[in-house]
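Collaborator request, handled under Task 6.
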Amino acid sequence: MAANKRNVEQVIAPSPWDPDKEVRLRVDRGIVGKLGEIASTHRIYQMYYNVCGYPPPVNNIGYYERHSTEVDDSRGIRDAHAVFQGLKRPHLKEDGDKSVLIYITKPAYIYKYKPGMACVVARNPFPKGAVFAIYVNMDEGGDTGEIFNWELLKCAFDNDSLPDNYNERYDTVRWQK
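Structure tokens returned to the collaborator:
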């Protein structure tokens, strides 16, 4: 992907209300700053690749994959196959947990730190038995919002494309492909 197309300020995602429509999301600058302060490089790599859909901006990115014949067509949150609404646990403010949207993806890869002279990051297979969750608060009006967290979750025993205990974890299924 060309560098000028990499935009983590505004990420296109399927609408939580209709997967055939799009919304524009921004990544919470506060969390990005905190991740930088604590040198949480793996979470920053996840933000770029698994949330925004771009390889991390690291010198010589792709060095370890240069001979790979595998096509990497990951698009981050745009590849979501399910969206849930409402966390069944407290979140930041009273009743704030009811409006949280959770996008679920199952990417093929994840970037990890790899010490080396040519490049410090390598693409690795996404862990088996896991899914990737991206947490969003929508703005009033519902066509823009903010990504405030993301994480790997263990997948359900009976459905490896959804999080473990998703019925106990989230209130509502908005859509599922």
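The cover message to the collaborator said: "Confidence is low (pLDDT under 50) at residues 1-5. The two ends are 26 Å apart (CA to CA). Please let us know whether this matches your experimental observations."
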